[in-house]
Specification:
6-stranded antiparallel beta sheet
C-alpha cells in the first residue's frame, strides 16, 4: 500500500479559490486564484487544478502558475509538447514547473509576483 505525501499548505491554497486581490497602492495590479480538488490523473497527480495569476491594469497576465494545458518546449519545427501540465508563465515565457506541495507553490508564486512588480517599478 502506498502512502500519499502530506501537503500541509493545501487547505490554505484551497481557501484562496475565487479570491481576487489588488496588490499595489495604485490599484492597477491584481492577483487571482482558481484552485479546485480533482481526481488525481497523469496530468494532475497531486489532484489539483489551479491557476494563480498576476495581472496589470489592462488585464494582461504578467505571472501565472497553472496546470490547465501541457507545456510546449523548444523552438521552431522541433518544438515538443511535454506531458506534465504544471508550468509557470512570466511575461511572455512559459516553462515547466515542478509541483512539490501547495506551500511551495504559494511561496514561489508570491516571489515571482514581487520580482515582476519590482522590475516594473511598482514596488
Amino acid at each position: 500500500m502506498s502512502q500519499q505525501k502530506s501537503d500541509h499548505g493545501l487547505d490554505t491554497l484551497l481557501e484562496l479559490d475565487g479570491l481576487i486581490m489588488v496588490v499595489d497602492a495604485a490599484g492597477k495590479h491584481w492577483v487571482k486564484f482558481v484552485v479546485k480538488k480533482v481526481a488525481p490523473s497523469p496530468e494532475r497527480p497531486h489532484g489539483l487544478s489551479y491557476s494563480l495569476t498576476l495581472h496589470d491594469e489592462t488585464g494582461a497576465r504578467l505571472v501565472g502558475f497553472d496546470n490547465a494545458h501541457p507545456v510546449r518546449t523548444g523552438s521552431g519545427p522541433g518544438k515538443k509538447t511535454m506531458k506534465p501540465h504544471d508550468h509557470q508563465h512570466r511575461i511572455r515565457t512559459v516553462k515547466p514547473y515542478d509541483y512539490s506541495d501547495a506551500a511551495t507553490l504559494l511561496t514561489t508564486f508570491w516571489a515571482e509576483v514581487d520580482a515582476v512588480l519590482q522590475e516594473k517599478g511598482v514596488l
